[in-house]
């Protein structure tokens, strides 16, 4: 399979505070046990994704691990999602002790509930390859 398809370049990430605030304030949220998904259809953030983990989760190392799990779950699933929306993923306490499979499963569930799967990208059940 094409390796480029699964990359997540920095240009596809939301980095500016103003863009984060835009998605927080105007986006629609869907909450799960391990993460919260914000979705906003706006050309300023379309096709981009942001990752966050609040200080309540723990020290910097714990927050970094949570963001790594979020990034990896998104990276593997990005080709199935719509490109006309901006996405923000926020880690919750359930992900601190969670594994990669937990993050991927929760993201798939939230994406289905938020209806952000692309027309051709039908969701696969967890565990399928």
Short description:
This protein is of the alpha+beta class and 129 residues long.
> How much of the polypeptide forms β-strand, as a percent range?
15-25%
Mean pLDDT: 90
What fraction, in percent, of the residue positions are helical? 25-40%
Structural class from helices and strands? Answer: alpha+beta
Q: How many beta strands in the DSSP annotation?
A: 4
Count of helical stretches: 3
Compressed to H and E, one letter per element, the order equals HEEEHEH
Give an overview in words:
- This protein has 129 residues and is an alpha+beta fold.
- Helices cover 33% and strands 16% of the residues.
- It is built from three helices and four strands.
- Strands 1-2-4-3 form a four-stranded mixed sheet, sandwiched between helices.
- A hairpin with a 3-residue loop joins β1 (28-31) and β2.
- α2 crosses α3.
- The chain is globular and about 35 Å long.
SSE order and pairing:
Elements: H1 17-26, E1 28-31, E2 35-40, E3 49-53, H2 60-77, E4 86-91, H3 100-114
Parallel strand pairs: 3-4
Antiparallel strand pairs: 1-2, 2-4
Descriptors:
129 residues, alpha+beta, four-stranded mixed beta sheet, 3 helices, 4 strands, 33% helix, disordered C terminus
């Amino acid at each position: 399979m094409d390796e480029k398809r699964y990359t997540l370049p920095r240009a596809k990430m939301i980095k500016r505070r103003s863009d984060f605030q835009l998605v927080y304030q105007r986006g629609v949220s869907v909450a799960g046990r391990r993460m919260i998904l914000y979705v906003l259809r706006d050309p300023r953030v379309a096709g981009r994704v942001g990752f966050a983990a609040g200080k309540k989760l723990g020290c910097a190392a714990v927050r970094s691990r949570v963001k790594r799990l979020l990034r990896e779950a998104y990276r593997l699933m990005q080709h199935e999602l719509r490109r006309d929306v901006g996405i923000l993923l926020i880690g919750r306490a359930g992900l601190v002790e969670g594994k990669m499979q937990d993050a991927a499963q929760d993201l798939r569930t939230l994406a289905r509930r938020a209806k952000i799967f692309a027309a051709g990208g039908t969701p696969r059940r967890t565990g399928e390859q």
